[in-house]
Amino acid sequence: MKIAIACEGNYVSGHFGHCEGFTIYELDKDKILGKSFVENPGHRPGFLPVFLKGLGTNVIIAGGMGETAQQLFNENDIEVIVCAQGLCDDVIEKYIKGELKSSGSICREHEHQGHCND
């Protein structure tokens, strides 16, 4: 299984489409088999879900994401988890332990900032 986390440096990005890149974790049940970084190839409508699917991604984790992007990920059979915050390595550990839950909230412009996990 591959989990992509939208990141800025070592932290989860507030908006997946404008992130620096994606930290991709390869998991086997509860063990991390590998970790790599892929630069964001650019924010274009509908592109990133297809790009990440091509990398074998099963789950995308981000701080925020718009409704259309969430729908496109779902259409590509990629689970979406939004409102994650903190260090990417901490977030993946929460995911592995089953402690990371998506708020399901939708980013409209940048209204989501400061409201995740309230």
In short:
With 118 residues, the protein is an alpha/beta fold. The chain has helices at 47-54, 67-75, 88-96, and strands at 2-8, 11-12, 21-28, 31-39, 59-62, 79-82.
CATH superfamily: Dinitrogenase iron-molybdenum cofactor biosynthesis domain
Structural class: alpha/beta
- Annotated CATH topology: Nucleotidyltransferase, domain 5
Q: How do the helices and strands follow one another from N- to C-terminus? A: EEEEHEHEH
> Could you name the CATH class?
Alpha Beta
Task: Describe the secondary structure blueprint for this structure.
Blueprint: E1 2-8, E2 11-12, E3 21-28, E4 31-39, H1 47-54, E5 59-62, H2 67-75, E6 79-82, H3 88-96
Would you give an account of this structure?
The chain is 22% helix and 29% strand. It is of the alpha/beta class and 118 residues long. It is globular.
Quick tags:
118 residues; Nucleotidyltransferase, domain 5; 3 helices; 6 strands; Di-Nase_FeMo-co_biosynth; DiNase_FeMo-co_biosyn_sf; MTH1175_dom
